[in-house]
Amino acid sequence: MRTAHLPAELQHSANIHPADLLVKSLSTIAHDRGVEVDVHAATGAPADTVARVAEQEHADLIVVGNKGMKGTRRVLGSIPNTIAHAAPCSVLIVDTQGAD
């Protein structure tokens, strides 16, 4: 369906990528809880991109969840594990497995 055929109130939202909506929502939650947020739009392999942005921003700490760090994914390589090895700073891997 073309966006021109949508009602005016939906035309704008049809052009917004779901990832942008997620980042905006998470930024709002963090801001509401008193956490300052800097959003960096970047492309590429997730682990390499996180490490690259951390280096560009002179980050002191990267915090990632441990999703994908069990079973065969851990042996084959997970994003958090790859970030931990590629990062130019400390990496804190938090337990998010029970968060579902």
What would a concise description of this structure say?
By secondary structure, the chain is mostly helical.
Report on this structure:
By secondary structure, this protein is mainly α. It has 2 domains: about 1-40, no CATH class; about 40-100, HUPs (Rossmann fold, 3-Layer(aba) Sandwich), CATH 3.40.50.620. It is built from 5 helices and 2 strands; from the N terminus they run αααβααβ. It has helices at about 10-15, 20-30, 45-55, 70-75, 80-85, and strands at about 60-65, 90-95. Strands 1-2 form a two-stranded parallel sheet. It is globular.
Query: Strand count, sense and closure of the main sheet?
Result: 2 strands, parallel
Question: Percentage of helical residues?
Answer: 40-55%
Whole-number total of structural domains: 2
Q: Give me the count of strands.
A: 2
Strand order of the largest sheet: 1-2
Radius of gyration: 17 Å
Number of helices in the DSSP assignment: 5
Mean residue pLDDT:
81
- The fraction of residues in strands falls at 5-15%
